[in-house]
């Protein structure tokens, strides 16, 4: 049995290492496959332009594709052209995977009123890159109705430490503290493996987010305390941390209830455990 990972960047590589540690053969697709660890058989390919070679025994497919830049053209090339070439290659090879999962984004919810969001909440992406991500989800489900979409919130973890850097640089609390949602990179990877390997057929859609939607000021204050820095001051003109982290964050309370109902257990259930592990240098590359 082969696990095919299209988009073997940071998250895709972590997923591949976890599958390899369980004894599975893993093939990773990325532009420069030479940088992949030895546990993953690499295939150097630009999916936006080419169809990959599909191993005949491919049972699971993970699409963790990402755009090279935040432009509409880059998103269209990665999410639409790349996904189409992958699906066409599966058809050409006559391979029908047992399970297929697309990593998407909770940015498809353009919600800014602090309301609760779950899998039943209709997506309402802004025109532009967020709409392209949603179009990719729809393309996948049109061609493979049994596929699963995992919409991830803001990923943090090893190499994704911008908020820590901001606090060290003297970030201020904002008078407009929006709710932020996040998931540790290791938990995102573990959730993908969990959903693909569990006996029950996964649902069409899950939200990948930890247990603690939280106002951005609370996270900033927590990090300052953990770093033994002076208590952060309130700056009425400071932009909300969620805006500084991502223009796509919005203000919403994302629910992970459906994911937890699959008996998935978080290693880092809230930002506290995750950031403490980061500050202690405890990030992992595999179990």
UniProtKB/TrEMBL annotation:
Under the cellular component aspect of Gene Ontology, which terms does the record hold? cytoplasm
InterPro entries reported in the protein's UniProt record:
Epimerase_deHydtase, NAD(P)-bd_dom_sf, NAD(P)-dependent_oxidoreduct
Q: What is the lineage of its organism?
A: Bacteria, Bacillati, Actinomycetota, Actinomycetes, Micrococcales
Q: Give the species this sequence originates from.
A: Cryobacterium lyxosi
What Pfam family is a match, any one? Epimerase
Q: Which residues form the NAD-dependent epimerase/dehydratase domain?
A: 3-201
Gene Ontology molecular function: any one:
aldehyde dehydrogenase (NAD+) activity
Name assigned to this protein: SDR family NAD(P)-dependent oxidoreductase
